[in-house]
Amino acid sequence: MRLFMAAYPPIEIREHFQAVVDRLAVARPRERSVRLAPPERWHLTVAFLGEVEDENAAVDALGELAEVPAPAVHITGGRTLGRGRFRHLVTGIETDDGGAGLKRLGEQARKALKRRRLPYDRRDWQPHVTIARPSDILSAEELAHDLRLLAEYRSPQWRLQEVHLMRSRLGPQPEYDVLAAVQLR
């Protein structure tokens, strides 16, 4: 099964952020889909495991995060990830402590996965929330507009208190199931 660890913004933060997303070019109706992520699926991927056979080992690794202090974070900024038709429009996650709290969370997750010999994405972790997968549908002007609006946005602060182990099933809109959750300290 395909697994990842994720933290979800509370509903009041999603509602606040929705106000800026509604103003983005990527949110405008169009003939071809840009695969706009619905607010209930907005999440911060703490660690992407990929295909895993031993769900119990992944649950155990998640449990180790209970000792990590819950960082206070903001949704802010915007950028694209990927190239060409695989481009994603994302917003950043920042902390008032220069990223130390998030870094600690990401490092602890990877150490726990490594101890259990579970796979995980070893690329540099760049905390973000995916807004849309616009492919090549947005014009350069529309993309610049969206990036400007996102650059000006900063959500209210919220505490990242819970991390979930998620199973994803791919499709036009991915489906996610919560397998386990842990409260951060």
CATH superfamily: Cyclic phosphodiesterase
Number of helical segments with 4 or more residues: 4
Strand percentage lies at: 25-35%
How much helicity do the residues have?
Answer: 25-40%
Average pLDDT works out at 92
The computed structural class is alpha+beta
Instruction: Give a count of the beta strands, DSSP E runs of length 2 or more.
Output: 8
Using the coordinates shown, work out and report the CATH topology: Cyclic Phosphodiesterase, Chain: A
Q: What does the largest sheet look like?
A: 4 strands, antiparallel
| Helix and strand run | EHEHEEHEHEEE
Rg estimate, integer Å: 16 Å
Give the neighbour order of strands across the main sheet: 2-1-7-8
The CATH architecture would be Alpha-Beta Complex
Low-confidence stretches: none
End-to-end span in angstroms?
28 Å
Count of distinct structural domains: 1
Overview of this protein structure:
There is one protein chain. The protein is of the alpha+beta class and 185 residues long. The chain has one domain (2-183): Cyclic phosphodiesterase (Cyclic Phosphodiesterase, Chain: A). It has helices at residues 11-21, 55-63, 100-115, 140-152; strands at residues 2-7, 44-51, 72-81, 88-95, 128-132, 158-159, 162-169, 175-183. The strands form 2 sheets. A 4-stranded antiparallel β-sheet has the order 2-1-7-8, with helices on one face. Strands 5-4-3-6 form a 4-stranded antiparallel β-sheet, with helices on one face. A hairpin with a 6-residue loop joins strand 3 and strand 4. Helix 2 (55-63) runs antiparallel to helix 3. It is globular, with a radius of gyration of 16 Å. A motif (HXTX 2) lies at residues 128-131. It is an enzyme of class 3 (hydrolase). Its EC number is 3.1.4.58.
